[in-house]
Write a structure and sequence with these properties.
Organism: Mucilaginibacter gossypiicola
Protein name: Type I phosphodiesterase / nucleotide pyrophosphatase
CATH architecture of the largest domain: 3-Layer(aba) Sandwich
Domain DUF4983: 475-566
Oligomer: single chain
Largest sheet: 8 strands, mixed
CATH topology of the largest domain: Alkaline Phosphatase, subunit A
GO molecular function: hydrolase activity, hydrolyzing O-glycosyl compounds
Low-confidence stretches: 1-30, 41-48
Radius of gyration: 29 Å
Number of helices: 13
Mean pLDDT: 90
Signal peptide: 1-28
Distance between the termini: 43 Å
Length: 575
């Protein structure tokens, strides 16, 4: 299938604080989940709570939520008037690769691939036994429910609907699926009816998933027509007046499209493959549209020592062992740091170094030069970076590639300069240091620095580019194992910058080291975002959670579901 990769998520602490509280209220690890949908109907003066609760669940593969919104598909547009719905819902907000099978598993188990382990379309290595499907859970409930799965893809039924009371596959024949579903809805004992349509996914793969692609949009509109026929069949049931149906309509995933080059959204919300739609419908629901949160203006929030170069200040932070990071002749290592400099032109203040004196002797130093930055070293001529003195945060990378005898410098993941490496030995008795060293006396300079990383390998251009906007690093980065020093600099006070990997030492902050808190917007960065930022819209894993609650099934904490419930607002109009 088509793949789309993107630079991933960062952290909005202001949003996270509020949402973390919400998450705490919603998800309790030491007791079962309360059934809010059941509670919501206790004061129902119209008697809806005594009606038999049932579920129609329509899965539409490959339909991007934003594409559906642009089409104004007539039947779904009518349905959302009595729905909780979102066009910026998410298939999976984590780092898991999105596949049809993985997205289906999210929708049927209520957990992500981190737990169910469905990462490829052949379901290889899955952990579904530990995280059973909707059909298995309802079967275990022993309530005699008739559960049905009618699918357009054999692998859906084979791997996910084995515990359904009845299943039928019409391979790549959505029209036949629609016909079988409408027939099934004529049976009085239907309790959970699941329909899976695949033609929009096939159209997108064959042509494109773009809004303006007529083959793709025609496939979506045809499925919308099927949805209209199914809803008509549902309302025509002889027992419909005595029943209370929750209708769920959702795409399993979106599809890869050409990314907007001007976008500053690097979160999961910008990934068209993860973009889907989810609708929870009941004729008594009032309209509740769930928009995505603001993603283009996420501030980078952290703390930093203020590195001032005025004669009375000049703080620095350094390692106490001067032999640390002596990598020797033709050594391989990479140094990376986030920096924010005052706007203006500054001449030669060093901000990061392993050298006794700036610009002379063995070693290296990074410094400001005019409105840009430069790396000076004893193993290569000067390697110029690009403009950074603009009051914004930038990521600077210096690579000493001894294997290929090159020195490379990058700004925000873009290669600026490559220089040949000579055979000089850069080892010295100077401490690895942030801030002022002798020979760098521009007193007007002032910088903040965070997220300092040192690797014992020469990172490649691709590796640097892939994570250029990240404001932190963890084990999900394939080069995390190569770190020999990582200082996030989140302390906010004190005289130590803590090393996080356990492989290095803490940096000791000298005199005059004042801390500064900041929350800045910077186009080059994609700050880490708390998980709760992505639960502000419905996710695929929410659907089983909602269905269990609708059916008044207690959800034990031991199920370890990843979803949450979406409480409807009821109208006063009797269906």
């Amino acid at each position: 299938m088509k793949k789309y990769t993107f630079k991933k998520q960062g952290k909005n602490l202001a949003v996270a604080a509020v949402l973390a509280l919400l998450a705490t209220m919603l998800f309790t690890c030491n007791k079962d989940f309360p059934n809010k949908l059941k509670d919501a109907s206790k004061n129902d003066t119209l008697g809806i709570n005594v009606k038999t609760r049932k579920v129609l669940y329509i899965i539409v593969d490959g339909v991007r939520g934003r594409a559906l919104r642009s089409l104004s598909a007539p039947n779904i547009s009518k349905i959302v008037k009595n729905s909780i719905y979102a066009y910026d819902a998410l298939s999976d907000y984590g780092s898991n690769t999105v596949t049809n099978a993985g997205a289906w598993a999210n929708m049927i188990t209520g957990v992500t691939a981190d737990k169910h382990k469905v990462t490829t379309d052949d379901f290889a290595g899955n952990n579904l036994a530990a995280y059973p499907t909707l059909f298995a859970r309802l079967k275990q409930a022993g309530a005699g429910y008739r559960t049905v799965s009618i699918a357009s893809t054999a692998s859906f039924n084979t791997n996910l609907a084995g515990d359904a009371t009845y299943q039928k596959t019409y391979e790549d024949d959505d029209a036949a699926v629609k016909g079988a579903v409408t027939d099934e809805l004529q049976k009085e004992d239907a309790k959970l009816v699941v329909a899976q349509f695949h033609s929009a996914e096939l159209a997108g793969e064959a042509s494109s998933f773009e809004d303006a692609d007529t083959k793709y949009t025609s496939a979506i509109l045809k499925i919308d027509g099927y949805v209209g026929e199914i809803m008509t069949a549902l309302a025509a049931r002889k027992t419909y007046a005595a029943e209370n149906w929750l209708v769920v309509i959702a795409s399993n995933k979106g599809g890869a499209i050409e990314p907007d080059p001007n976008s500053t959204d690097f979160t999961s919300y910008a990934d068209a493959t993860r973009n889907n739609f989810i609708v929870f419908y009941n004729p008594r629901f009032s309209t509740l549209f769930v928009p995505k949160p603001e993603t283009d203006n996420i501030a980078y929030t952290n703390t930093s020592i203020t590195y001032d170069y005025a004669g009375s200040k000049r703080p620095n932070a350094s390692l106490q062992d001067p032999t640390t990071f002596n990598f020797g002749v033709y050594g391989n290592f990479t140094v990376q740091v986030l920096i924010k400099s005052l706007p203006g032109e500054f001449y030669y203040p060093t901000f990061l170094s392993k050298r006794v004196t700036a610009f002379t002797g063995a070693g290296w130093n990074m410094f400001l030069e005019g409105d840009a930055w430069t790396l000076n070293s004893s193993v290569a001529s000067q390697a110029q970076g690009t403009t950074i003195n603009d009051g914004l945060w930038h990521k600077l990378t210096a690579v000493f590639d001894g294997t290929n005898k090159k020195v490379r410098v990058y700004t925000d993941g873009v290669l600026n300069t490559t220089r040949d490496m000579n055979g000089n030995n850069p080892n010295n008795n100077a401490s690895f240091k942030l801030g002022y060293i002798p020979g760098s006396e521009d007193e007007s300079a002032n910088v903040l620095m965070t997220n300092l990383q040192v690797y014992n390998v020469a990172l490649t251009t691709q590796q640097i580019s892939d994570y250029s906007c990240k404001t932190s690093i963890d084990e999900s980065n394939p080069n995390y194992k190569d770190l020999v020093g990582y200082w996030p600099m989140t302390e906010g006070s004190g005289n130590l910058l803590k090393e996080k990997t356990g492989k290095g030492a803490d940096l000791l902050v000298g005199a005059n080291g004042d801390w500064e808190n900041f929350s800045d917007l910077s186009p080059a960065l994609c700050p880490d975002i708390n998980t709760s930022f992505f639960t502000m819209v419905p996710n695929n894993v929410d659907i089983p959670f909602e269905i269990y609650q609708w059916m008044s099934i207690t959800i034990p904490a031991s199920w370890k579901l990843d979803g949450r419930s979406w409480n409807p607002v009821y109208s006063d109009i009797k269906p």
